[in-house]
Amino acid sequence: MNNNPGNASSSSTFPDDATAPAAAQPTSQATTEQASRKADRPWFKMKRYLLPIALVAVISTALAVNSRTNTKTPTSLPTAQAVAPDIGTKVRDGTFEFVVTGVERPGKTIVGKVGATLTAQGEFVIVRVDVTNVGSKEQRLGCSCQFLFNDKGQQFAPSPAVLSTKDALKYVQWISPGQTVKDTSMLFDVAPGTKAANIELHDSPTSQGVMVKLA
Prior knowledge:
single chain; Immunoglobulin-like; 2 domains; 2 helices
């Protein structure tokens, strides 16, 4: 009979040693499966490729937008910059035919009705125009829908002082078909030294208008 306590101790520890590799086996297997999944993952889903792909997409989009911007067809020039007929040329808008006969720069003041003095905030520019009704109905000439443009394309509305000039009645009278109102004054108040380049004439506030070159 062998009652050696050392043998009993040795036999009791053997199962623990034998089960140690079994406990580590699930972890090892999980690591292997994870590595296998990474190996099988498409290249475009791998983390080291995600940032470069995103950068390429952003750059490509920017280049495409820039290309479309650079190849866009230019729009037409503003009306004030378009080539226009000169002074003395007959032009038509709606049922009115206009002929610009001249441009005057009287300065800071002009003589109004009954000898009154009219004073500009800047200085006055007067555009002289003959107006003929070429339509079939009588019509009035609008005093608020004629526009002056300088050499930079800036637009100036008529001065309200025009209704205090000797030509005020030409804006309230009815113009019969075939009738011409000569030497109508179109008055503008502009900054001193403004270069009057064009005038846009209208038969009514809603018409398209026609441009005449003044200089």
